[in-house]
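Reopening this one. Same input as before:
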Amino acid sequence: MLDAVSIICHTDAFRMIINNAFLSIKSHIFTIFFINQSIEQLKMRIFKNISLSILVLSYLAAGANHFIHPQGYISIIPSYLPAPAVLNYVAGFLEIAFAVMLIRRPTRKVASYSIIFMLIAFLPVHITMLQQSPIKIGTLMVTPAIAWARLLLQPLLMLWAWWHRE
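Same output, byte for byte:
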């Protein structure tokens, strides 16, 4: 009997069965890994699309607000900058334009970097707001804590725009 088992184990058919079993197990492990990886990629893509939508809507709203409530913005533009009303409308237009550019993939990279540069250009406004706080802007009272929060938020907004560059 022992010789019969030994003969069966050494036949090509037995080796083929074992090899197929191992290939099948490897295939299942790969499939499970691939499906889990795909699900994680899908979750990240959904999260990134939601984030991008929020970013676009935020810049559309902020840009429109420059036209709806210009006095609030004009009042915080540093006095050493010329034509504060014009600068306000240019800023509003650029925020809307960059938001629209974020929507389409071919213009997203330019929009992302443009938003970063725009946020850098807005830093003097936030510093002036901090220096003048507490200050009333429209119906909002900007306290020193709010002014600091707005200033410290700028790098996070820059990172958010940068994350959507591609």
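So the earlier flakiness isn't reproducible anymore. For the record, The mean pLDDT is 86.
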